[in-house]
Amino acid sequence: MERDIILKEIGKILIPLVQLFGIYVIINGHLSPGGGFSGGTILGTSLIIMHLIYGENFIKNLYSKKKLILIISISLIFYTLIKGYSFLSTELNLPHPPIGNPGNILSSGFILPLNIAVGLLVASIFYVIFSIFIRDEV
Amino acid sequence: MESFSILILIFLIIFSISVSIIKNLLASVVVFMVYSLLMAVLWQQLNAPDLAITEAAVGAGVTTLLFVLAIRKVKGDDNEEN
After folding, report:
1. Which residues of A fall within a CB distance of 8 Å from B70?
2. Range of A120's domain?
3. CA–CA dist A125, A127 (Å, integer)
4. Is residue B44 part of a domain?
5. Contact predicate A108/A99, CB 8 Å
6. Within a domain: residue B82?
7. With contacts defined as CB-CB under 8 Å, which chain A residues touch B58?
8. Is B57 in Cβ contact with A41 (below 8 Å)?
9. Contact across the interface for A33 and B66, Cβ inside 8 Å
10. Does the N-terminal or the C-terminal CB of chain B have fewer CB atoms within 10 Å?
11. Do A33 and B57 touch (CB under 8 A)?
């Protein structure tokens, strides 16, 4: 089905802005309101909009099923390992990354990588839910 | 700020009643989306900006999209009158 040209051109302008805002919310999760879940939801919404405007084949070339499963698995395993280690390291006095100055992007130890993992996971899972909803497969 | 929150609360009550009263399903979903947006503004007024972002993204974005898709799937062809 051919989409309207106005929709495509507006999408070219708006979708990068939406993705940039999602990345901003994820990266600044430990400094300002937001975090992994909120930013991941915004990123997932941009993926859904891309699917609706440019069709199924466009996003399949960009973000295939294999890549989707790979990102979900890697971020889930990374999250569980790092989160478990962060619980254990305070109890057993294991080494952990430096805290840094409050207010910097690279500060507060494990929270930034955890936020990035949660953001990727939530974005992919939202797209999977939408994809199952619209055509019964990923 | 207090009176603004009370105004939003009154509108929330009106919208939540009208969601269940309206017969047209698509119009009901749109009213529900406006309810979510007002709820996000109210979270911001109650000093919970974190929840406000999540409510605006999930409530107004993803939930509305899934509801519209569900209506389209239930009705089959979208040429019928709603």
Report:
1. 133
2. 5-135
3. 5
4. yes
5. yes
6. no
7. 41
8. yes
9. no
10. N
11. no
In a domain? residue B18: yes
Residue A115 tokens read as 């936020």
* Residue B81 lies inside a defined structural domain of this protein: no
Please state, in angstroms and rounded to a whole number, the distance separating the CA atoms of residues B29 and B63: 9
Kindly state whether A131 is in contact with chain B, defined as any CB-CB distance less than 8 angstroms: no
Number of domains in chain B: 1
User: A57-112 pLDDT, tens per residue?
Assistant: 888 888 888 888 999 999 999 999 988 888 888 788 777 777 778 777 777 778 88
Residue from B43, B44, B51, B62 whose CB has the most chain A CBs within 10 Å, to mutate: B62
- Condensed to tens digits (0 to 9), the pLDDT of residues B10-48 reads 999 999 999 999 988 889 999 999 999 999 999 988 888
**Tally of domains within chain A:** 1
Token pair 């891309």: residue: A50
Q: Is A24 on the interface with B (CB under 8 A)?
A: no
Closest residue in chain A to residue B69, using alpha carbons only: A134
User: B32 lies in which domain range?
Assistant: 2-75
